[in-house]
Amino acid sequence: MMKLIRPLIYVFFAILLGCSKDDPADIGRSTFDPSAWLVPKDEVIDAGLGKDGIPALDNPQFSTPQEIGGFFDDQLVLGIEHNGALKAYPMPILDWHEIVNDEINGLYLAVTYCPLTGTAVGWERKIGEVVTTFGVSGLLYNNNLMPYDRRTNSTWSQQRLECVNGSMVGRKPKTYNLIETTFATWKKAFPDFQVMNANTGFDRRYSLYPYGDYRENHELLFFPLSQSDGRLPAKERVLGVIGKEVVKAFRFNDASEGTKVMHDEMDGNPIVVVVSGKDNYNTVFYNPEQRQFKPEQNGLPVVMKDERGNSYDLAGRIIAGPDTGTKLDAPTAFIGYWFSWTAFYPAVQLYGE
Fold first, then answer.
1. Judging by beta carbons within 10 Å of its beta carbon (0-12, 13-18, 19+), is residue 236 exposed, middle or buried?
2. Would you list the DSSP string of 170-226?
3. Distance (Å, rounded) from C-alpha 310 to C-alpha 129?
4. Do the beta carbons of residue 215 and residue 102 sit within 8 Å?
5. Between the CA of residue 233 and those of 3, 138, 277, 341, what are the distances in Å?
6. Alpha carbon distance 341, 132 (integer Å)
7. Cβ neighbours for 23, distance < 8 A, ≥ 6 positions apart
8. Which of the four, 75, 109, 139, 339, has the lowest number of CB atoms within 10 Å?
9. CA distances (Å), 208 to each of 114, 205, 213, 252, 347, in order?
């Protein structure tokens, strides 16, 4: 049985950040009927930090990997490739800020990350034709981050991928998959990129994980869940793939197994999942031509090859072979703790069952 507890470390986190004085009774404050929620309003939790009590980063600064050195090597980063440009965002910084409002090669991007559910999704920051920024509302649903957009003050659910309260209610953000892996693996996979540095303008101890043993303690949750499922340990990281009709979860393999490729389908569409416990990545792509992929062992930046002789990197780009320069599309997918997938998607299928 998981414990529902707000431990001292969480209180310590609030003290470090400095709590906002916003009135928690103002949840959903806007120009519309505040009773119009797409999730049960009584399950929306005020985490006690207030709106913007966890400050999003609106002016992120970047360095080269050479300038960063090995400081983050053993830590997870979230990365994105867009039109040839590559950026990486270290989780030790995101643990303290949760949202980064950025731009990459013409894409207005919000990197949204929830430390409590271990989920990270890239959102386009355009609502209609207007570019906005997202902030941390201080609210949680199923322990998951609820961003708000600063244009309309509407409240969104990160893992539900939808606006759940406000004038944008029901709208779904355009999402971009982020690659989650260690900084050491990222550097091998992508030699030319920018990495967000710790020059944030905030006085934070980024070397300190603010939630104690939360990541390892499967019995510990801070807030209630609407649904639980004991098929896997609560905090096991899995890749969730969201289709129109089906949601599937793919586990990491054992590090001793090396790189592994799985051929499957979502809503009748062929997909390929490439995973490595050793190098700590788990990602998915559409496979419309039903090519037969084989894993590449110890060959970063190459993670898999097909029968045509093409070599693919972690972003799904063909970097060598007859089709060099093309890229695989991907379904909506991101890594998160098992408990979060079953809370938001109770019918989630577990690959291999």
1. middle
2. T----EEPPEEEEHHHHHHH-SS-EEE-S-SSS---TTS-TTTTTTT-TTEESS--S
3. 38
4. no
5. 14, 27, 17, 12
6. 28
7. none
8. 75
9. 17, 6, 12, 26, 36
What burial class does residue 159 get, using C-beta atoms within 10 Å of its C-beta: 0-12 exposed, 13-18 middle, 19+ buried? Answer: buried
Report the predicted TM-score, pTM, of the whole model to 2 decimal places: 0.91
How many CB atoms within 10 Å of residue 244?
9
For tokens 């062929």, what's the residue? 270
Q: Which two tokens stand for residue 317?
A: 């780009």
Distance (Å, rounded) from C-alpha 153 to C-alpha 131?
14
* Averaged pLDDT in 10-residue chunks for the chain of 353 residues: 51 47 37 72 94 97 91 93 96 98 96 98 92 97 98 96 95 97 96 95 95 96 94 98 96 93 96 97 98 96 98 98 97 98 98 90
Element (H, E) at 67: helix 65-68
341: left (phi over 0), alpha (psi -120 to 50) or beta: alpha
Q: CA 76, CA 183: separation in Å to the nearest integer?
A: 6
Three-state DSSP string of 255-278? HHHCEEEEEEEECCEEEEEEEECC
Backbone angles phi, psi at 113, to 5 degrees: -135, 130
- What secondary structure letter does DSSP report for 7? -
- 247 phi and psi angles, rounded to 5 deg: -120, 130
Q: Which residues contact 33 (CB under 8 A, 6 or more apart)?
A: none
Alpha-carbon distance of 209 to 192, in angstroms, equals 28
* Tokens 């960063």 belong to residue: 68
User: How many other C-beta atoms can be found within 10 angstroms of the C-beta atom of residue 23?
Assistant: 11
